[in-house]
Amino acid sequence: MNIYTRTGDEGKTSVIGGRVDKDNIRVEAYGTVDELNCFVGSAISLMKEDKYPDMIPHLLQIQHELFDCASDLAIYKPGIREFKVKKEMVDQLEKWIDLYDEETEDIKRFILPGGSQVSSAMHVCRTVCRRAERRVVTLAKEQEINSEVRKYLNRLSDLFFTVARTANVREGLADVEYIRSAEVFRKRK
Predict the structure, then answer these.
(1) Where is the Cobalamin adenosyltransferase-like domain (predicted)?
(2) Nearest Cα to Cα of residue 120 among 171, 156, 155, 154
(3) Which listed site, 17, 60, 104, 167, has its alpha carbon 20 to 30 Å from 113?
C-alpha cells in the first residue's frame, strides 16, 4: 500500500459517505480531535510508570476513544453506520475526574498551566480539547452529528484539568495560581 494516493491533490478528502473540501468544518473538527490525540500521546510519553500506573492506561483508552470521536465526526451522511461514542464513555470520564480530584487540594484561585512537565502537557491537551469542542459545536450548527461526541469532549477537557493538577501533586509541586485572582472557588462538599 502506498502512503500517498494523490486523491487529495486538488484539495478534497474522503469522509464516510462522500468527499468534501479539506477545509470543510467537518474535516476541521475531526482533524482537531486527531491533533488532540497526538498531544495525549506526547503527554503519556512524559509519564513514569511508577508515578502514573493508573493514568497511563486511562489515557491510552482515551486515545482509542478519540479515534472513535473522529470516526463519528467523519460520517458525512447520517445513518451510514452506528455511532461509536456512547453515553457510557462520558460517564467513565466523570468517574475518573472524581477519582483524580480526590488527590488534589481545593481550588481557591484560577490555575495557570505549569508546574511539572506532565501537568503542562495535560494543560495543552485541555486547551486543544476545548478547541476541538468549539469546532464540533460549529459543525453541529450546520450538520447532524453524534451529540455524545460534544459531551465527551466537554467532559474530557475537565478530566485533563484534573489530571494536570493531580500530576503536580504526584510530582510534589504546587499548582501555579493566578496571583491577581481573588479566592473565587468554593470548598468541596
Answers:
(1) 3-167
(2) 171
(3) 60
| Cell numbers placing 9 | 491533490
Given a contact cutoff of 8 angstroms between Cβ atoms, the answer to whether 149 and 69 are in contact is yes
Write down the pLDDT at residue 183: 78
CA angle 149, 153, 158 (to 5 degrees): 150
pLDDT at residue 189, as a whole number: 60
Q: Per-residue pLDDT tens for 112-160?
A: 999 999 999 999 999 999 999 999 999 999 999 999 999 999 999 999 9
Is 1.20.1200.10 the CATH number for 12-177?
yes
What is the residue whose three cell numbers read 510519553?
45
- Asked if 30 and 73 count as a contact pair (C-beta separation under 8 A), the reply is yes
Backbone angles phi, psi at 60, to 5 degrees: -65, -40
Quickly count helices (H) and strands (E) in the chain: 5, 4
3-class SS of residue 87: helix
C-alpha cell at 148: 455524545
Q: How far is CA 117 from CA 34, 125, 150, 165, in A?
A: 22, 12, 28, 12
The span from the first CA to the last CA of the chain, in angstroms, equals 57
The CA distance from 150 to 160, in Å, is 16
**Distance in angstroms (rounded) separating the CA atoms of residues 37 and 125:** 8
